[in-house]
Specification:
alpha+beta, five-stranded antiparallel beta sheet, about 25% helix
Length: about 350
């Protein structure tokens, strides 16, 4: 299987499967001399790990990270620092229940990658989807923690702004609320309403989709390249690579198609000696290059495909049948996609910072 790496100057390669011994990643291109500890990484993994509330899968994985290489400490360094060599990170799987999938080993789960994996490789890991499982994203979150250390001037935050058909009220946006509820929701009132909605979805054995918004503040003007290395191009690629993502927009996104040029244009005025934009419909990127405003993107996550409602399918031998996907699954996979979106944004920005530094000094 190829294409397990992402990035150029700051490059990550993930490995492992949902029910394998472990998963992890190798981070290549991280500059030397950056202080990094396992605790720095663990704090972000704890936001993504399963079993944190009744609204996520009850698989019990501590997601404890181990740094295997790429760091060093002696009496001349203030703490453990990166050496500039590849950083290997490992997260062990400790709560696999492969028997949960024995009944569907020969059935294609609708909405999953079972059929396409078998068609492409001639073999598939039916235990939780193997490599196609969203469990792979734990390694991305670990890599994202290192990426944040590369660009400490940038603050990357994300929030769930829509669950199923229910959107937040943007007038109620409060970043302090994101860590105060199980949905990473910036609207306290919406979060309360979502509890009853998702409880109903969960008890029915069904699932729902979500929209996540990622905001990066502190990105200076000038990152990105204007043709095939656009900053927003790479952000879109990063978000689309996340499991279950079916749509990405930058700034105003698809809303821009419904308004006029006058409404969409981000007008500019002078503040002191610096130009200042009066709005941010562009999402902080113009011509593929950062404008100095907040970089804003949103991505849509489809409903979790593993549901208890019987669905029509076929077996690998071509027999028509029905399927119920048992096991432990997220009723809304978008919840735990919030820290994954943050991580992928951080990885893209770390990569573009190093690319910019290499070209422009």
């Amino acid at each position: 299987m190829s294409h397990n790496s992402f990035g150029h100057m700051f490059r990550i390669t993930t490995f492992g499967e949902s029910h394998g011994v472990a998963l992890g990643c190798v981070v290549d291109g991280c500059p030397a001399g950056i202080v990094i500890t396992e605790d720095d990484i663990q704090s972000f993994l704890d936001k993504r790990k399963p079993g944190t509330s009744r609204f996520t899968t009850q698989r019990r994985e501590p997601d404890q990270v181990k740094i295997l290489s790429g760091v060093f400490q002696d009496d001349r360094t203030e703490g453990q620092v990166t050496t500039g060599t590849p950083i290997a990170l490992m997260i062990e799987n400790v709560d696999q229940r492969s028997k949960d999938y024995s009944e569907i080993r020969d059935k294609f789960r609708p909405g999953h990658a079972d059929f396409t994996y078998l068609e492409k490789y001639g073999v598939r890991d039916y235990r939780g989807g193997g490599r196609s499982s969203a469990r792979e994203t734990a390694a991305r979150v670990a890599a994202g923690a290192i990426a944040r250390k590369v660009v400490p001037m940038v603050d990357v935050r994300a929030a769930l702004v829509q669950m199923g058909p229910h959107k937040i009220n943007r007038d109620n946006w409060d970043w302090n609320q994101v860590g105060a509820n199980p949905f990473f929701c910036p609207d306290a009132r919406a979060a309360g309403e979502w509890e009853a909605y998702l409880d109903g979805i969960r008890k029915a054995g069904s699932s729902c989709g979500a929209v996540i918004e990622v905001v990066a503040s502190g990105v200076p003007a000038g990152w990105g390249a204007p043709v095939y290395g656009k900053l927003d191009q790479d952000i879109a690629s990063a978000m689309m690579s996340i499991n279950a993502v079916k749509g990405v927009e930058i700034g105003n996104g698809f809303e821009a198609a419904a308004i006029t040029g006058e409404e969409n244009a981000d007008e500019i005025r002078m503040t002191g000696n610096r130009p200042e934009f009066q709005s941010n419909n562009a999402g902080g990127v113009l011509g593929g290059i950062s404008s100095g405003q907040d970089v804003v993107c949103r991505f849509a996550v489809k409903p979790t495909s593993s549901i208890l409602t019987p669905r029509k399918t076929v077996t690998s031998s071509g027999e028509e049948t029905d399927i119920i996907t048992k096991g432990r699954h997220d009723p809304c996979v978008g919840i735990r996609a919030v820290p994954v979106g943050e991580a992928m944004m951080a990885i893209v920005l770390a990569d573009h910072y190093l690319r910019h530094r290499g070209q422009n000094g």
